[in-house]
Amino acid sequence: MLLDESGRQVASEKQEKILEKELLLSLAKTDVNSTYKGFFRKRMEFWHETLFHQKNFAFLTRNYRLTYQIIVRPIGKVTGAKSFSLSDYWSKFKSLIPKKEQKLLSEKSEIEKPKEWIKLPGNTYEDYSYLDLLVSISRYNFNKNWNECQKLLHKNKEFMLTIRQFVDFLNLLRSGEVEYSNGEKVPKKEVERILNEIIEVRSPWRSEWLDAKFINKEEQIHIVYNKLNAEGETTEVIEPLKDCLIEDKTPGIGFNSWLNNKAKHGLPLNNIKDGSLWYWYPRANSVVWFRAGSGRVVLLCFGNPGDSGSRLGVRRAKIFRVDL
Description:
alpha+beta, 2 domains, three-stranded antiparallel beta sheet
């Protein structure tokens, strides 16, 4: 039963199930609001913290912060010839430990020009996940090529959206339920304007870089993208492409089919339906950009990282958090 400091019940059994689901999602993102407290001979301790906001759970009387301790201990000995090894046990958990304590962005925290940023909730796909992000409404760094944009963004602890994150961003805009970084709801007309600026078939053409590069490795095409930790530091990830469409479709693939797929890299699947979205499949030494113009909308996985243009920019993104 969920009680406040005075002992009063603040949620029904059904409502507690909703909070429990949110808590498990929070726990899955162990590098948010978690602190490693030390390494002991017989146990390891983690502190985890989850915020339940009244704006997200209308049945709460106010915001609640749940803090709890997780203690990991070995139980007995491993059966068989191999004895229990604490170092083996430690290796399974050290990836969960952040370098320092992080705090979620509080409702009172201020972000410079909050209505220039949209909150993109974090998500998990297979073995890939990302934290809650802030995504800029506008594009930046025009007349810069892909490599130059990467350097400029990383210098400010910002980054390009991966294909997966870009798909999720489009789906968020299409849902109409969008919030600015300060939690204020974005007016539906403004959401429609932002979405149309990205996908509407009209002049002039608009285009933006995405964080995906393709290379040949072991006689197979691999995707290269950046993965971020809670501090905004990037790690380059190289993975083989699986089940994505390796065929140009001009036209086209189904736009809705592409947005509805749950593949971790966000690329169209090889069994995708036909449609009006033009698609060039990944080639080695190429990068990705998305473009809309007077004749068509294009997902190009065959872009030259050295190209630039006055209408080719990048959408800034960053981790949704501050250090308190």
